[in-house]
Fold this sequence. Notes:
Blueprint: H1 5-27, H2 29-56, H3 60-109, H4 115-119, H5 124-141, H6 145-164, H7 166-174, H8 182-220, H9 226-236, H10 242-258, H11 260-285, H12 294-308, H13 310-314, H14 316-335, H15 360-363
Amino acid sequence: MRAPRSDRKVQIAAVVALAAFLGLALWHPAFLMLGFASALMGVALHGAARALSRRLKIGERWSLVAVLVGLLLVTAGSYAAMGASAIQQYDEVRETLPAAASQAMDYLSSQPWSAPLVANIPPVSELSEELMRFRSSIMTAINSVSTAISGALIALIVGIYLAWQPDLYARGVERLFPRDMRGSAREVLERVAARLRSWLVGRCLSMAAVGVLTGLTMWIMDIPMPLALGLFAGVMAFVPYVGPILSAVPAILLGFTESPMMALYVGLAYAVIQQVEGNLITPMIQQEKASVPPALLLLGQVLAASLFGFVGVLFSTPLLVVTMVLVQVVYIEKVLGEGQDDLGAPRAEDVDPADSGVIVVAMR
């Protein structure tokens, strides 16, 4: 049975959109990532404002103002309560890590089972130089810390605009399509926004759990700078698989300042925390939230890294979430004529139409 004419147009439009996405990714990847970050910010802000509006029975715009004021107060309060301490602890981590790395190398060099391997590793001084060159290449890729901060501020401002008038941007996208395609285009926007919001809620809860568990565990184990390590672990948990591995390195090196066995215990503690997060906390949170199969996550991270660099790794999962919804709606439902499957894209009747406008930037 042939697909209806409107569905065929949707399929053609999807192919054109994909080609435009890949072209923009090759021509100006930083702009594309900035637009996608803005869309994520808009989804998060509008979702929080809508939830608050339903609870307090007030308008969504007043709810958005309340959310922004609340975020500002929480940020200021957090900095006043522990900002100076966290900055001091991060400075201490930076100063302590070289000595910890030297102790780790000395210990491994003295062990028969690891001495041959260590003999082929460059000295710590050379490694430090390599790390500095690697860091310089990263900073060159993102053009400087100030550029990254400016990008974050732009994403926040654009996200606020998207959350303030989501319908305005949704209607603008709809008008890019013929009249008989606008309903399908609106449906795709709604379901992408709903899926992104669901994923963001689950990810933020998991990040908070990892940060708290890590900080408490390091404090109980009497590892230096537990607050800084907990914050770092929580932030890095935004990136599945890669983030937890990177977050464990500073803690393990600090463990070496106490003893090799303490470093081993710290590594085991991080492994246990990640197992608890991956097999208990995240499945419980995402029973009603969006989840992504592990194999797709890893492949998506590799592809995003090759296209966009480190920033692509940061946003690889939400990009994959959007791709899964597009496959579900455009191919599985429109082409194959099947309903919702394991991809789990929310049905149109289960989402708020106002959500669709906040993902417009990601489509441009």
